[in-house]
Amino acid sequence: xxxxxxxxxxxxxxxxxxxxxxxxxxxxxxxxxxxxxxxxxxxxxxxxxxxxxxxxxxxxxxxxxxxxxxxxxxxxxxxxxxxxxxxxxxxxxxxxxxxxxxxxxxxxxxxxxxxxxxxxxxxxxxxxxxxxxxxxxxxxxxxxxxxxxxxxxxxxxxxxxxxxxxxxxxxxxxxxxxxxxxxxxxxxxxxxxxxxxxxxxxxxxxxxxxxxxxxxxxxxxxxxxxxxxxxxxxxxxxxxxxxxxxxxxxxxxxxxxxxxxxxxxxxxxxx
Length: 271
Description:
Mean pLDDT: 96
CATH architecture: 3-Layer(aba) Sandwich
Largest sheet: 7 strands, mixed
Number of helices: 11
Order of helices and strands: HHHEHEHEEHEHHEHHHE
Structural class: alpha/beta
CATH topology: Rossmann fold
Shape: globular
Distance between the termini: 30 Å
Low-confidence stretches: none
Radius of gyration: 18 Å
């Protein structure tokens, strides 16, 4: 199915409603280390202009600002932007947060030295348009750096579990394709040169698999929204299904959870 046959605007409206449900930063803030590692991999330097695309509560923008870069974050969920502003203020970091769509970024062509996204731009429904925007706003010789969950890792498996309860929109490719080298090559072509493609693990540390399930059902907006549509019996089964996912990736020998979730850290130089 071609992209013209898919109503991406309607899909994004539903996505935005999902992210504005629950309290995603309660999950997203735990992922800060991914952004710090990505900023290092991208070689973010003082005084560079850095854009965090689909920034959520600003993990990568804050990481850039800590390195004295001129940081900007863009997201379409205004509640997440507000929490980003609160975090920046609390750390006395000068970060600009803009409301905007990853598929139509509200910034000029070739205006950033570094363009980052930590498990953010991967959720844009029109993959090609989002990739085109990343290239458009990056200055020649600048770097695009992405951290994306892989299809076979824990989060990829969680999304598969969720899709059994709420099938994804027809015609939209899985977000976790961004976590594969082949898909990045397809999206970006010869406009960039990939300089590092590294598979890393983020470890989800919770009290138990059941605690993980509870936390995501309460705070991870799209999952929170889905859970609210289920009957009492189905909610109980959905809770159990979610708990089974991290349990399969847990390597702790005590009662607590340490579930390893693979993601692809990819850094490219823009031609």
